[in-house]
Design goal:
single chain; about 180 residues; mainly alpha; Hypothetical protein af1432; 10 helices; about 0% strand
Length: about 180
């Protein structure tokens, strides 16, 4: 079985009965969109598969050991690089960790993280167009903190050089927050 198909099946099972924050949209739409963004940008199938699986360890019962067993060490390491290490930390601490980590992460981890943020912003923009400022009430932190986070993510992703997806992310940040 193709690794992308296998990742789609595994992510679908892992995220079954989960929904996007504050909506009735099945959660699986997000990892699939992340994979499509990476595929469209020309990334290897292992990177696309890791993009599809990027939230499984953070948001489901799937472990990195499960991913390594089922998909191999490379994909498990890519997913590990996109997983927040400690959900017990405050939102600010977790986001600051991500901002710092992405400065020196591998190119492929940075691409997956960027595709993740890009789809999140596009989803927020779509919801914003429908419900206005009310959209910010869905998040642990509001518009000001979200703008801070995404602006700093862009700086981190550009720390060792830019790439196409970062430019797209910046366009979405400008569109949503300005």
């Amino acid at each position: 079985m193709d690794v992308i198909d296998k990742a789609l099946q595994a992510a679908s099972k892992a995220h079954e009965q989960q929904y996007r924050k504050g909506t009735d949209i099945p959660y699986i739409v997000h990892p699939v969109a992340v994979g499509l963004i990476l595929l469209k940008a020309g990334y290897r199938e292992q990177v696309v598969a890791a993009g599809i699986l990027h939230d499984t360890v953070e948001d489901t019962d799937v472990t990195l050991q499960d991913l390594e067993r089922d998909f191999g060490k490379e994909i498990a390491e890519l997913v590990a690089g996109c997983t927040e290490p400690d959900k017990s930390l405050s939102w600010e601490q977790r986001k600051e960790h991500t901002i710092e980590y992405l400065k020196t992460a591998s190119t492929e981890i940075r691409a997956i993280a960027c595709a993740d943020k890009l789809h999140n912003l596009r989803s927020i923009m779509n919801d914003y167009e429908q419900s206005g400022e009310e959209v910010w009430s869905r998040f642990k932190r509001g518009k000001v903190q979200q703008k801070w986070y995404y602006t700093n993510i862009i700086e981190s992703l550009r720390y060792v050089g830019s790439f196409q997806l970062v430019d797209e992310l910046e366009q979405e940040v400008v569109r949503l927050f300005n």
